[in-house]
Amino acid sequence: MEFYPIVCQVAFYPIVCQVMEFYPNVRQVAWVKESCETIGEIKYSPCGRWLALGSHDQLIYIYDVKSGYKLYTKIAGHSSTITHLDWSKDSKVIQSNDQAYEILYSDPKNGKQVKENQRDTK
Q: CB under 8 Å to 117, separation ≥6 — which residues?
């Protein structure tokens, strides 16, 4: 479960991602299922624009929240199941870990891996 930082919305998983809004009324906002595998991790970006889903199919799915949770891009590069996602403070880079202990940095806008050192990323 992950809470949307701007309004009262919660995203649930593991097989499909169901986004529910709890204020002012309870209603389903989105139902996303791009992967045939289990969703292992879910994280909203700090800016509130993106929702990232890490799947057991070794892909990260980035959804555009402001466009009604439409799929924006897919990020590939992991060799095993994604176990954790984390965003930079400015929402420009997403860090992902997998069961093989790989740590990758990616640009959520184009889905490409970021090779530069991320030590001082804000």
A: none
Cα torsion 80, 85, 87, 91: sign:
positive
CB 19 within 8 A of CB 29: yes
Query: If 0-12 CB within 10 Å is exposed, 13-18 middle and 19+ buried, where does residue 51 land?
Result: buried
> What pLDDT score does 41 carry?
87
Region of 99 please: left (phi>0), alpha (psi -120 to 50) or beta: alpha
Name the CA radius of gyration of the chain, rounded. Answer: 14
Task: Supply the DSSP string of 9-47, one letter for each residue.
Answer: EEEE-SSSEEEEE-SSS-EEEEEE---SSPEEEEEE-TT
Task: Give the model confidence (pLDDT) of 25-54 as tens digits.
Answer: 777 777 777 777 888 888 989 998 998 999
Write the single-letter amino acid at 61: Y
Distance of CA 67 to the CA centre of its chain: 15
Other residues' Cβ atoms within 10 Å of the Cβ of residue 22: 11
Query: pTM of the prediction?
Result: 0.81
